[in-house]
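Hi all, a correction to my earlier message: I attached the wrong file for tRNA-specific 2-thiouridylase MnmA. Here's the right sequence:
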Amino acid sequence: MTLRVLAAMSGGVDSAVAAARAADAGHDVTGVHMALSSNPRSYRTGARGCCTLEDSRDARRAADVIGIPFYVWDLAERFHRDVVEDFVSEYAAGRTPNPCLRCNEKIKFEALLDRAVALGFDAVCTGHYARLDGGVLRRGVDAGKDQSYVLAVCTPEQLARALFPLGDTAKADIRREAEARGLQVADKPDSHDVCFIADGDTRGFLAERLGTAPGPILDTDGNRVGEHEGAYAYTVGQRKGLRLGTPAPDGRPRYVLDISPVDNTVTVGPRESLDVREITGERPVWLGDVPAGPFACEVQLRAHGEVFPCTAERDGDRLRVRLETPARGVAAGQAAVLYEGDRVLGSATIADTARVAV
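and the right structure:
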């Protein structure tokens, strides 16, 4: 069946090959690049870039080679509100957000898809490494590039209008295919880090927007062992950059265990205190029927992170997860994504954890 497909073209090799494959499949494809900054020069540029002026030009050249119409859509205001401001407010609340996950949720599969459907398109095509099998979201075959984790926030209705043409192919083969197609982005490096932080200095970016807010760094007994300029600059599990004035009695390294914006404190302790066995998630998204009671599955707690066997249960508008073995350094604000083998069952935003007693 021929579909009217809107191909999201970031300017990278993945989205270019995805658009080309959609066109090869006989679909009526139109390319679109999302302009996500009112001042693109304020975002990353060059090899470490994403959503930059260079990317827009690369996307247009790729569309010309493929032979499809191409447009640039200005989504800067929506991106700033739903991704950048969300990023800042989450850190201010003591959580550690995943902006790429939020961008997929709010920009690519809400703002972009909604506009595409309103214009008469049947589906949106992206360069994500994931597979759709009869409406079921599965991991991409390239384990190192699998992006099902950041797509698990999409609803079944959104996935029903999505195409992921790269999910059955390894990244190295995608680059070879791009070269064979004559796409200049074949050797373009992948983007990394947070695209809207131009110099990669997350702490400085947050300080500029949230200001300084000095407070104490405490050990697990409540003793003051250091000072911070803003609790938002720390993440659970962090070891470096703590600048503690008082060493641990046993001389062992200490890690951030907790960030409390209410009293502006950061708590540090031994590595083993990072271990958690129970996780509570909020705003769950379910991709299919949910068992009435507890069920066995696996959970992934960060992009490209370890997978843990667990028992999960839907509890009203919350998700409860109990791990068979402890996970270390689980941060509120990240996503807990449930899997059955390579199949995504659902996801939720981590709201709270229960640590293992030490």
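Sorry for the mix-up. The radius of gyration is 22 Å.
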